[in-house]
Design the sequence.
DNA sequence: AACTGTGAACGTGTTCACAGCC
DNA sequence: GGCTGTGAACACGTTCACAGTT
């Protein structure tokens, strides 16, 4: 099939947004959609959309547009979300449990099948359908159940240890929410979301453009 | 001061990581650090580090490196995290409350001073030091307390309405965790973290590089 | 006429390489 | 010698513009 050499990360990101838009269009009964329309939905240009899609093949019909259902299914396959994907969460703190029950994950075919925590007191609790299991069983459990995806939400100090266990269990990818970047073999995909960095970046942008509404606190005007 | 015309977003992101590394170095008593060392800590190149820093001025000493404390303080100021920043959370669901009590935020000078929710049953509850308030008081409250930062963690359907209220209250920036991208005036900074897209991107990467450990479920080997 | 697919032009961020200073 | 600061070279992603298709 269409397995292009190298696709840029921004492109894959946008593919996800196209996929969402196409789902909506499909639900509303639209049969075709133009690159311009897809672009508007995501705040992009039509050329960008066409370029992104052209990387994977010719899905459109010149003069007419893209067939919604076909393109949606194609993207589903390309993104690898064409079947339900089990995932585990490591770290059953507030963030971990919130992510484990995040409705948009299950809506996208991701199902949290287990959580892990070092705290014995938490073991046995349930979060949705998933049970909290002891952290020292991660490797066995992940391997036995053939889980490829993990969400890492431990404190920073525990992140590397947890990552090691996931790797030992043969994990395919880790969505990392810890403040560190764990070291893993090249073959394991890690994508990090650092919440503090996002907030700091926003902070910079605010200060940059315009001023703080109040740079000294308490000042109502 | 050093207010360069335009700094790329990737650069600002990296600045945050340098800042973290510098804090660690400061704690461990290091007095100077080379660009190479800073680079290693974040998986970058030394040239990258020097370029990033040079945008804001000359912090280093040729032949010696960068003075840890001075550079740390400079970055603190550049990132705008040199003073405590109050922030509010809109949407007191699991994700919202988890973010409200996220320890790394407070460690970085971000303090959640209030949450807001449409559900009257939640109003009055406390999350850490912050109280959950009614969503229809957002504008007033934000304006009265001069809050510039908001974390948006409502369901997608409620996101635009919540954003409108924040904007009406004079918010400076929104860290958006909803599945939509709310429309706001140009002057308001929005940074979106779409968790599903991150997971889908990871999914793509796994499938791309190597294969799934098990592409059909249940298969132990 | 409407719209896709794509090479070519452009812009932006990264890496190189070296002059300059300690 | 070690290391910074920076122009110049490079790589990569985006936008343009148009030929090609229905």
Sequence:
């Amino acid at each position: 099939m269409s397995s292009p050499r190298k696709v840029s990360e921004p492109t894959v990101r946008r593919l996800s947004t196209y996929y969402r838009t196409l789902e909506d269009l499909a639900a509303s009964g639209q049969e075709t959609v133009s690159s311009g329309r897809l672009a508007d939905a995501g705040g992009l240009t039509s050329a960008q959309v066409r370029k992104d899609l052209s990387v994977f093949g010719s899905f459109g019909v010149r003069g007419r547009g893209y067939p919604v259902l076909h393109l949606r299914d194609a993207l589903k396959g390309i993104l690898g979300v064409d079947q339900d994907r089990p995932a585990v969460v490591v770290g059953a703190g507030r963030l971990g449990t919130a992510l484990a029950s995040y409705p948009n994950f299950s809506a996208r075919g991701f199902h949290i099948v287990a959580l892990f925590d070092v705290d014995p007191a938490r073991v046995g609790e349930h979060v949705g359908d998933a049970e909290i299991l002891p952290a020292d069983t991660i490797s066995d459990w992940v391997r036995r159940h053939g889980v490829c995806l993990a969400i890492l939400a431990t404190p920073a100090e525990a992140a590397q240890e947890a990552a090691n266990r996931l790797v030992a269990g043969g994990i395919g990818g880790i969505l990392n929410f810890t403040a560190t970047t764990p070291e893993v073999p090249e073959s394991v995909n890690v994508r990090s979301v650092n919440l503090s960095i996002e907030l700091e970046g926003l902070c910079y942008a605010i200060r940059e453009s315009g001023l703080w509404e109040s740079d000294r606190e308490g000042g109502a005007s």
